[in-house]
C-alpha cells in the first residue's frame, strides 16, 4: 500500500537529498524542487499529498510559494525553516501553511508531523462534509466557509478544523491535549504554543473584541471552552 507522495522544496541540494532518502525509506514517494518555480511545476504535474517547504530561497521564497499553492490547492503544507520567530509562524499560518517546523528538527518529530498532516488530509476526504451551527458562528464545511454574524470569514484548513471541533463541543471544557489530539493528532499532544497561536488567530477572526473574547474562553491552566455568543 502506497503511503503518499511528498514534494520537498529546498534550495539546498543536500537537504533535499537527505529528506528524500529519509522519507523514501519510510515508504513515501518523494519528488523534490530547489526553487519556487520548479516547485509549482512539480505541484501541478505530480499532485503530491503533502508539501514540505523551506522559506529562505533565492528568487521566489517560500512565503510566495505557499501563497500561490493556496490559490490552486488545499494540499497540506508543512514549512520547514530556520526562521523560528513568532511573527514568522504567524505569517506562515496566514498564508495557508498547516504546520511550521523550525530547523534543526529531530528526525522522529519530522516523521510524526508528516504522518499527522497526511492523516488529517485523508480523514477529511473519508469522513465527508459536516456542518455545525454555533449560533452567531456557523461552520459550513460543505461550502468550506465560516459565517460570523451572517458575514463570511475566510479560514485556513486547520483553523476551520479547530473551530469546528470547538463549536461541536460548545459549552464543554476541552483540555489543551484533548484539542491537540483531536484536531492535530496524537503526535502534537503537549504542543501548547501551537494551540495558543491558533486560538489567537481564531479570536482575531471571529470575536467582536479579540482582547475580551466572548466565544472562545480560556480556562486558565486547563484548556478552552466555546460559548455560543447568543446565549
Distance between the termini: 49 Å
Q: What composes the largest sheet?
A: 5 strands, parallel
Structural class: alpha/beta
Overall number of strands: 12
Outline the low-pLDDT stretches.
125-129
The rounded Rg comes to 18 Å
| Molecular shape | globular
Average pLDDT rating: 85
Quickly count the helices.
8
Percent range for β-strand residues = 15-25%
Strand order, biggest sheet?
2-1-3-4-5
- How much helix is in the residues? 40-55%
Helix and strand pattern: EHEHEHEHEHEEEEHEHHEE
Task: Give a brief outline of the structure.
This protein is of the alpha/beta class and about 230 residues long.
Q: Could you characterize what this model shows?
A:
The protein is globular, with a radius of gyration of 18 Å. The protein has eight helices and twelve strands. The chain is an alpha/beta fold. Strand 11 and strand 12 (223-226) form a beta hairpin. The termini are far apart.
List the helices and strands and how they pair.
Layout: E1 5-9, H1 13-25, E2 29-33, H2 36-46, E3 50-53, H3 62-72, E4 77-81, H4 86-95, E5 99-102, H5 107-127, E6 131-134, E7 137-140, E8 145-148, E9 151-153, H6 157-168, E10 173-175, H7 176-184, H8 192-206, E11 216-219, E12 223-226
Amino acid at each position: 500500500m502506497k503511503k503518499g507522495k511528498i514534494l520537498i522544496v529546498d534550495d539546498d541540494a543536500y537537504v533535499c537529498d537527505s529528506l528524500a532518502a529519509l522519507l523514501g525509506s519510510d515508504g513515501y514517494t518523494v519528488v523534490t524542487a530547489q526553487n519556487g518555480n520548479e516547485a509549482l511545476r512539480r505541484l501541478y504535474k505530480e499532485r503530491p499529498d503533502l508539501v514540505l517547504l523551506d522559506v529562505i530561497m533565492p528568487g521566489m521564497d517560500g512565503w510566495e510559494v505557499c501563497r500561490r499553492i493556496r490559490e490552486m490547492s488545499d494540499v497540506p503544507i508543512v514549512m520547514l525553516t530556520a526562521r523560528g520567530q513568532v511573527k514568522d509562524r504567524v505569517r506562515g499560518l496566514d498564508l495557508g501553511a498547516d504546520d511550521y517546523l523550525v530547523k534543526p528538527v529531530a528526525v522522529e518529530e519530522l516523521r510524526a508531523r508528516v504522518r499527522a498532516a497526511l492523516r488529517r488530509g485523508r480523514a477529511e476526504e473519508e469522513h465527508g462534509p459536516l456542518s455545525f451551527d454555533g449560533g452567531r458562528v456557523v461552520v459550513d464545511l460543505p461550502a468550506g466557509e465560516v459565517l460570523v454574524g451572517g458575514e463570511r470569514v475566510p479560514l485556513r484548513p486547520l483553523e476551520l478544523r479547530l473551530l469546528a471541533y470547538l463549536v461541536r463541543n460548545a459549552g464543554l471544557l476541552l483540555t489543551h491535549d484533548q484539542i491537540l489530539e483531536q484536531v492535530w493528532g496524537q503526535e502534537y499532544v503537549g504542543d501548547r504554543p501551537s494551540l495558543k497561536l491558533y486560538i489567537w488567530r481564531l479570536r482575531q477572526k471571529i470575536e467582536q473584541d479579540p482582547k475580551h473574547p466572548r466565544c472562545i474562553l480560556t480556562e486558565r491552566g486547563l484548556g478552552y471552552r466555546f460559548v455560543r455568543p447568543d446565549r
